[in-house]
């Protein structure tokens, strides 16, 4: 194990391949593209949270000069889609279930005309009762969000009941017996509001048909998913749909999944024109089926007299919203975070994914984790306090470590949770001494890695210039940018010798996309494989050229040389020129993804595959905050982070992921939460009232990486990193606030008013 | 007569334009002038992606009437570098790792340019406040802070 | 469809107004409202930003005149204001971002009539009057007479706010504006309070005025503060809190509940009086007082 600081030199210079385009303004995002003859799309939304459709009349809209098409449900194939629980259609049919549901799509010769047409669509409906409260939704007499829920063609182990879209439980040991044995029992409830990914780029889609093939430029994190969604809903073979993502202006999970590509492709087909959609900021808030889920978490934990955890019982409701986007695994994932990275022999957690008439939930950066961790770790500080133990000592004692058995029975290989705790504590202690109304809080978090299929090609052309052609998607993290470092290292070349062709489903092999922190883990392997095939070709050419044994050829510094005789060398460019006249230098990589761990006797109902964690990542964040007791305003002054994400390949990008995740976590902790009105509609769908952290709010952030080259992970033992830094920040802030207030603030975000309310509570 | 005819000077080049008087400067820069480096991230001056300079001062071009820019020098991100040479803030942002998705980057660069003209040797707090109108969701601002400080040192020669 | 004229003389502006045009200064309110679909742009606009005389700041025998086109960026740095009318500078420095401060003007702010505007409460405690002018003449009105409700003023459609007038300051006086801030920047007032304090030679309160932001349909002065005269400033600052809370008639909205607003307006009033008194005693507290003293909600 090494920390990054142990390495002698500063992080190597890393300049993004897409950097010059981004800093000069020449980089094109979807909204920047236009095609000759292009029309402009707008959607007509339901504007009502729950209603039965009486009539959608588009006659007047179609009659407006400049309107080329108005499409509704009858104009596209009747397909119900979504992974695991297919409960959605492209356009509303019969019933609308949230305010941002699409009734119709318009294409017109200007945005203003398109808007006029949208306004001219007649929508008559009968209001239905709004399902908004998670617990009420689970009652037997609750109105149903989906009356036909039982008819949906679900897949896998997916127990369901009325408004419970799916149910999952974790179970190990005997919780009743464990509780009976407990010296101290602590019971807590935590409630987290929903929140948003809020990338700075509102999404756009541009579609153009040529013959029977469609090209779609879209701001998607997952081009292949988007392609598959278009194919499924418009009933097209995959090779007729080409998805291209130009530069992507952030996603944070909000641009995962299949969104509006099919609507725009259908408009483009109907009008025989290119059609472009660009969302307003308000649409970006209200419409996509990807926002962070609200949650209710009940936790009861029994402690032995020595401070070890003997049993934990949990009950969780996770908001699904009106439709199931990719949230089918959220119930189980939430249970893992509420259980936490602890050694507990007796665990039982019931977790429910619950339909409401709100915007659908979906994978926003580490779904369910910041909220689940916030509950688990706030509860952990309550546990430590109940038994009079220091919270750090409590976590060191109960936290899992190499060789320990976790909450579902998984036995962990070498992991760095304990070292993360030490490193975070050490860093925060180096921050200045505590002032008045200041406190330090700390939390640990975990997050899985997701091995999966992924492919890439690498080629060297005859001038020695390299090209990486990858299915991977760059959403800003730098993961795709790091691929050229991997290829270069494999070939003894410079990263800047390579260009990257990416984000085009027609030219590159499959990749899951910028989701699940998986790019480096999976596509990194693919690129290393592909580059190694070229390395083999180069070594053969070099051996032939220098009359040496292939096994003795070393590729380094842009040359092939004979081991032990650096002066006996030939440049890779020269070898590439030789190869250019014969068998070309082309490598293709994919390979078998690392295996998921097997857990004998794992006892999960509703297993969606997220209990056994491959290459789990660990983290500990320690924060210093200051409280204004008269107002409840909290400022975060310092954040000290320690992460075990395996080997760190690109340090600058890695620091950037942690720092960005921390700031998003501060927002979740203090200011970012969705307000709903009685009408089931969002009240703060804009950046004035939905408050992202500004530059002025950014604290000092220090980071240490506990580098454990991890088996069954990515290249050189790298794990994922994009989501993990978003997990424990809000929890650490909660624990610092609780020290100052004298009790936890049991609602997320912990707004100034909620903190002030907690300050007014009488100490029992 | 609602079309407004005027000449706008963008990055030192005069453009003779005619547009509806209600048009905002951002849409005219992107559509009529044809420079798309200036981005649209919101509609109420909250995100700063649309930041341009008017006579050297930062302005949210999304909420400023294009007609009112008549007679003022408009600078966009495309006007910052000369030839193939990156402006120091552009180069420093890349070196420090202050660019991720890049969508806030042009606006952040324009605000930085204005800040450093106004305050050549800024404190950390000057930078925090000076750039508080530019939201970044990727970086946590830390690497941008490093880049701005390095740029200030480079430009002021201290 | 909208038309715009951009005159350079005040007379041309006033004639355009008489012909039914609406004035536009920086555009931050008008353009944002139209882009968000809240209110379409008026059919005829007259830009006032090219009228040089509207951008003047001048001292006279009766005090300070601030032209309507003076921007927040200038209000927060203009020496005459920072020295003697500091609360205005405090407020201007908290508005939006450098870019909105660069475009937003005091005239636009005052005539927009929002109860959440930051410069309003400072102008009230400093006794400001607004000068309105039309082709048929000129008049001065107090802010209390100008603001008739949220977003509403008593100005006639053809009247232009050309200047804000601030009376001379007494000796040993200071002022401050304090705002509750959830974030350290880019906030809109949840509640805010301005105070103006004059001290007697013995350091006790000689005169005090307090006005409140975002707790009523218009910005309100706290009435009946005479009882604070003669008190030690720290005592006066504590006593002003219940008076402020009692004056407030806040609403509950997504920014805060009425209960929380009623409490925090008292806190802000106390802090504003404290800071104003310190300035009155000769202490320099940098602008804005929020950032100089506190964690965003100065104390």
Uncertain stretches of chain C: none
Please give the count of helices of chain B: 5
Might you state the CATH topology name of the largest domain in chain B? Ubiquitin-like (UB roll)
What sort of overall outline of chain C do the alpha carbons produce when their principal axes are compared? Answer: globular
What's the mean pLDDT score of chain B?
96
- CATH topology name of the domain at 173-293 in chain C, in short, is Enolase-like, domain 1
CATH architecture of the domain at 173-293 in chain C: 2-Layer Sandwich
If you compute it from the alpha carbons, what radius of gyration of chain B comes out, rounded to the nearest whole angstrom?
16 Å
Let me know the largest β-sheet of chain C.
5 strands, antiparallel
Distance between the termini of chain C: 49 Å
Greatest interface and its participating residue counts: A-B, 57 and 54 residues
What is the topology, as strand order, of the major beta sheet of chain B? Answer: 2-1-5-3-4
Output the CATH class name of the domain at 173-293 in chain C: Alpha Beta
Mean pLDDT across all amino acids of chain C: 95
